[in-house]
């Protein structure tokens, strides 16, 4: 089971569950965040990586998609909308379209009129 920070609301556990096994390469994460691979490598070496990483073999590092999505959602100012998540998922070529659709569908089902963003509700 993945270990998530205590501030992850249960309503986001489905992201962890749906994305459980999807892994992302450092190149994919670097491209996504517009960083160099060296920046990610330095953060891992210094122990300051924003998200956990997995060494699947010597020299082969991977990041869990669920960790990336959690970090992005928890550090996003403003509302986390299904459309923003859909756009985010569309940039990740290794995410199967069916999985992306399930995540967005679940977020749309959670969306209620007058909902506030996770950050504005929990970081006052």
Describe the structure.
This protein is mainly alpha-helical and 124 residues long. The chain contains seven helices and three strands; from the N terminus they run αβααββαααα. It has helices at 13-19, 26-33, 37-46, 65-74, 82-90, 97-110, 118-122, and strands at 23-24, 54-57, 60-64. The chain has a three-stranded antiparallel sheet. β2 and β3 form a beta hairpin. The longest helix is centred in the last third of the chain and has 14 residues, at 97-110. It is globular. Mean pLDDT is 77; it is low at 1-5 and 114-124.
The pLDDT mean sits at 77
Strand order of the largest sheet: 1-3-2
Which structural class do you get from the secondary structure elements? mainly alpha
Strand content: 5-15%
Low-confidence region ranges: 1-5, 114-124
Number of helices: 7
Largest pleated sheet: 3 strands, antiparallel
Shape: globular
The first-to-last residue Cα distance is 30 Å
How large is the radius of gyration?
15 Å
Task: Give the H and E element order.
Answer: HEHHEEHHHH
Helix content: 40-55%
Number of strands: 3
């Amino acid at each position: 089971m993945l270990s998530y920070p205590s501030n992850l609301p249960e309503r986001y556990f489905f992201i962890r569950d749906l994305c459980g096994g999807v892994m992302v390469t450092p190149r994919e994460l670097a491209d996504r965040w517009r960083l160099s691979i060296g920046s990610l490598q330095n953060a891992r070496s210094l122990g300051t990586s924003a998200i956990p990483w997995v060494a699947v073999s010597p020299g082969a590092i991977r990041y869990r998609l669920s960790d990336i999505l959690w970090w992005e959602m928890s550090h996003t100012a403003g509302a986390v909308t299904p459309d923003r998540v859909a756009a985010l998922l569309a940039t990740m070529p290794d995410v199967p379209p069916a999985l992306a659709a399930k995540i967005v569908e679940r977020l749309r089902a959670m969306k209620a009129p007058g909902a506030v963003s996770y950050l504005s509700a929990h970081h006052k």
